[in-house]
Amino acid sequence: MALLQIDNLVVEFATASGPFRAINGVSYRVNSGEVMAIVGESGSGKSVAMLAIMGLLPNTATVTADNIMFDGQDLQALSPKQRRTLVGREIAMIFQEPIASLNPCFNIEFQLNEALTAHTDLPRKARKDRCLELLNDVGIPEAKSRLKSYPHQLSGGQCQRVMIAMAIACSPKLLIADEPTTALDVTIQKQILELLLNLQQQTGMGLIMITHDMGVVASTADRVVVQYKGNLMEEAPVLELFESPQNPYTKALLSALPENATGDRLPTVADFAGGLS
């Protein structure tokens, strides 16, 4: 049985000009211990689909699906309170732009402790010890002193590590990483990706990596889902997708990689538009 099973997910937003369909009947399967990448350009609905699963979309959104099953539980049948209990404990998400996601008014220990208080029964001393353990786990130097730091006192890479620490605080079964290397320099990007993969391998959790970077996909994923304008265009094991892409949009993404350039300019999606649905 898949850890996460989504069938025919549809997300629509109410707008002044009528409903806008952001996700058009996509389906996913993620197994324990698997790394699945969801790839596509900005606006393809990658983050919206995951926020729908997490129950974090605004009231203007309407979410329907034939199935949203997690570890044998029907998420659509849960009350809002039950879903909040599950999210953050068994399903966790690392959001884009870590500095914007952390609260500038509270120090790092307070924010880590907040997650532990909400989702565990650990006593105060054990929570404090766990906060320190988490910062050490994600490789933050001088972790004990950093507990009292505020987000603005940390680098972008350190803030991202704090976000990862918050996400894994309750040992989730599924971790969703939404563009986890955005706005980080190349060296830090590599460190963050290695950290995520090491944590995934150590815990056996499922990992969904949302990205538009095919290089990240090649270096991290077991399986790839390609999205375009809210539609699932192709799904395949990572090696199969890179060696033999079937969908025109997938071919466009791969052809746009600098190493695949064959002429004076890189191809664009418009060059393949005739084959896109």
TrEMBL record:
UniProt keyword list: ATP-binding, Cell membrane, Membrane, Nucleotide-binding, Transport
SMART domains: AAA (SM00382)
UniProt name for this protein: ABC-type dipeptide transporter
Reaction(s) the record says it catalyses: a dipeptide(out) + ATP + H2O = a dipeptide(in) + ADP + phosphate + H(+)
Family named by the database record: Belongs to the ABC transporter superfamily.
Entry's Gene Ontology BP terms: peptide transport; transmembrane transport
Top-level enzyme category: translocase
